Amino acid sequence: MTAPTPTDWSFRAEDVTKVYKGGVRANDALTLRIEPGEVYGLLGPNGAGKSTLVKQVIGLLAPTSGSLAIGPHDLVAHPDVARQLCSYLPQAQMPIDSFHLAEAIEITGRIRGGGREAVRRRTDELIEALDLGEWRNTLGAKLSGGAKRLAGFAMATVWPGKLVILDEPTNDVDPLRRRLLWEQVRGLSSFGCAVMLVTHNVLEAEKSVDRLAVIMDGRIVAEGTSSALKSADRGQLRLQVMLTPGVTTPAAPEWVRHPLRVGNNLVSSIDEGDAAHGIAWAVDLMNAGVAEEYALGATTLEDVYIRLTGHTSDDDDASAA
Length: 321
Fold this sequence. Notes:
The protein is of the alpha/beta class.
């Protein structure tokens, strides 16, 4: 690996491969870099290899081969340093049942090396910014899932490390506070943190990340800005047909691309020149009682995600119709 300058606190993963017993290859030569102040999205369905990578970064697993580093520190050789340099919000709820919300945040900040007054000010800022004031002195055992999730985010970011890893941070959070949380994610750039956002919620990630990678079967299949990844889909439209519950998935015309049914939604893409045909097809389905409504619009990052993975962010177990 190229030796970083003393001020280079980027996170680097180079050719990271993890093979479990039995030959299961969870990560396959993953290479990525996250700069300080950058929010980097790691997208992929369940089982794609995201969690395995995170466990290697924070020192819970050792890679079979490859290297991991933050600044001048080798995280593979020194996993204890990884835990000092990384702030981590896992998918599971934080174990704070016996602590008041503000107390849990402050204690975490002090453990991570923050001074008493600085941590208290930062705790107050996060509680206000995330609209958690009504639960400030509430025991964790009495918090809702969403409030506990926000408390966990505050614990991970009250005194952030050089790399902040957020694994599905908006799980259980109501729509209003989700918006507030994403504002705080973006605000981490002011601390100079590199942020790794691990998620399969593509629509939210599109609005919040600087760059992103789509991971599938342990490999990065696409990487870049949201605009760059969508460039291959220029000239196409997103056609979504809301099917009548219980009906069989209708056969799609040949000009309908990548049709994927998730629940009662049939999502696909069509060329702009086929817009009139797409509308006519959707209306015919409605007249036949097969569909209840439809929507036609610009392609999104999720359409790229569907094309690359065969999944949508709504249902990781969906399969193509």
